[in-house]
From TrEMBL:
PROSITE patterns to which the protein is assigned, alphabetical: ABC_TRANSPORTER_2
Alphabetically ordered keywords of this record: ATP-binding, Nucleotide-binding, Translocase, Transport
SMART domains assigned to the protein according to its UniProt record, in alphabetical order: AAA
Stated name of the protein: ABC transporter ATP-binding protein
GO cellular component annotations of the record: plasma membrane
Domain ABC transporter residue range list: 4-220
Record-stated family: Belongs to the ABC transporter superfamily.
Domain of life: Bacteria
Length: 220
């Protein structure tokens, strides 16, 4: 079953007289339960693609379908509803509430999904290697800790589709291997994962590697 489809996505940015072609006709299909790594050089369009796939950004051309329903060109409220029921999202813009601790951020995300499970909060804090920082506020975390806490929040509600941008940036080797185990557990549970990454170790564990270059899929 196909979980997420992108049809011929185009995205252009205009800054003054400059025009950047971030996506130039990207098509991609993720099957339910697939673990896919999105790779490519800096500036190749990975983050832009993830934003369009989750409906946080609207493509200038093409469309996205999630769970068989079109996500693109709907109202912001409809996109937000579809996002909440399909995705866990970690993008470079971050997803933490600054006035909540790491634990409270994870708990809050679970609550939004109608869930409450303290053992799962403990397990997620452990998985991302933040046991010692679980009670720190988001504003008190380092860059790497912020990214790991953000990943725990993205995973909190056990989303059908996890979309994460560089989830293992700035993590030590032990944490990276725990996270890889977690992504493999998701795959065994039939959950779908798409990660943009510069990590060869992580990409090698994926079922499939999709390579972007200059806004196009170079290899899939
Ligand atoms: N909001 C924006 N306004 C103008 N240009 C943008 C914007 N967002 C992205 N771009 C440009 O679009 C291109 C693709 O950027 P994107 O962030 O998607 O690349 P990336 O592959 O994720 O890079 P990295 O690996 O460095 O995160 C780049 O040339 C970038 O400068």
């Amino acid at each position: 079953m196909t979980a997420l489809v992108a049809h011929e996505l185009y995205r252009f940015f205009h800054t003054g007289d400059d025009e950047t072609f971030a996506l130039r006709g990207v098509s991609l299909a993720l099957c339910a339960g697939e673990f896919v790594a999105l790779v490519g050089p800096s500036g190749s369009g990975k983050s832009t693609l993830l934003s369009c796939l989750t409906g946080l950004d609207e493509p200038d051309g093409g469309h996205v379908e999630v769970g068989g329903m079109r996500l693109t060109r709907r109202s912001e409220a409809e996109r937000a509803r579809m996002r909440a029921s399909h995705f866990g999202i970690l993008l470079q813009t971050g997803n933490l509430f600054p006035h909540l601790s790491v634990r409270q951020n994870i708990r809050f995300q679970m609550m939004l999904a109608g869930k409450s499970d303290e053992a799962r909060v403990d397990a997620l804090v452990e998985t991302v290697g933040l046991r010692a920082r679980a009670h720190a506020f988001a504003t008190q975390l380092s860059g790497g800790e912020t990214a790991r806490a953000g990943l725990a929040v993205a995973l909190a509600a056990d989303p059908p589709i996890l979309i994460a941008d560089e989830p293992t940036a700035e993590v030590d080797a032990d944490t990276e291997s725990r996270l890889i185990d977690h992504f493999e557990t998701r795959r065994r549970a039939g959950l779908t994962t798409l990660l943009a990454t510069h990590s060869g170790a992580l990409a090698r564990k994926a079922d499939r590697i999709v390579r972007l270059h200059d806004g196009r899929v170079e290899d899939d």
